[in-house]
Amino acid sequence: MSTARTSATSRDGRIDAGSDRYARPLIALHWVIAIAIISMLCIGFYMVGLPRGLPFKSDLINFHKSLGITVFLLVLLRILVRLAYGRPPLPPMRTWQRAAASITQALLYVGMVGMPLTGYLGSSFNKYGTKFWGLALPQWGSDDKHLREIFFGIHGTIAWIMAALIVLHFLGAMKHQLIDRDGLLRRMWP
Ligand code: HEM
Fold it and tell me: Tell me, what's the pLDDT at 5?
């Protein structure tokens, strides 16, 4: 018997989108990556404010780099799984809502790939390089302050855009859950 069901209409006439669920591996990756990225944003903003020369600061930066590369690998896996499984059809909603959701999600994917790449590239033009849980990764250049500042500038800008997108994404999910009450959150709930 197939487990896939289509969106249903409940007795009070509301659309119930919760009967169409994302594939389990995608649900797991969504929540693991969400927690990791929110932690990475908090760690990133906190560590850049720490005074220079503090041993704790360099430990935290190394942890940030390793976790960031791990997130990158998980995001690549997520993109592959998403391409393999697709996503359940969206429930009926207004055109602008559909467009807003699609644009936010597409930009989140761009940010999820762009954050680690710009962090890694910035670190490549630094004498410290990047260690991935102790393993030295290739550097793409020598110590270059100008290039480093360009990539870290982009890294910092995307971080703020990501933070705003995560808030928008969360508010959208809450609107569906609390105002529309269409069960959309259940599609992605573990
Ligand atoms: C999900 C991935 C990542 C997120 C969400 C993230 C987030 C952040 C944030 C919020 C900051 C502070 C930005 C600022 O206010 O200037 C930061 C700084 C930094 N990040 Fe990341 N990061 C990620 C991945 C990486 C990776 C993979 C590396 C390196 C391999 C890296 C290296 C750095 C470094 C060295 C800084 C300090 C930059 C500076 O000194 O100005 N990040 N990151």
Answer: 40
pLDDT of 104 strictly over 80:
yes
The pTM (predicted TM-score) of the whole model is 0.89
Q: Which own/partner pairs from 155-163 qualify as long-range (CB within 8 Å, at least 24 positions apart)?
A: 155/115, 155/118, 155/119, 155/122, 156/48, 158/111, 158/114, 158/115, 158/118, 159/41, 159/44, 159/45, 159/115, 161/107, 161/111, 162/37, 162/41, 162/108, 162/111, 162/112, 162/115, 163/41
Nearest to 36 by CA among 73, 85, 79: 73
Ligand 1 pocket list (CB less than 6 A) = 37, 40-41, 44-45, 48, 61, 64-65, 68-69, 71, 115-116, 119-120, 122-123, 130, 152, 155-156, 159
CB 122 within 8 A of CB 105: no
- Over range 125-141, report the average pLDDT: 95
Q: What domains sit in the chain, N to C, each tagged with a CATH number?
A: 19-187 (1.20.950)
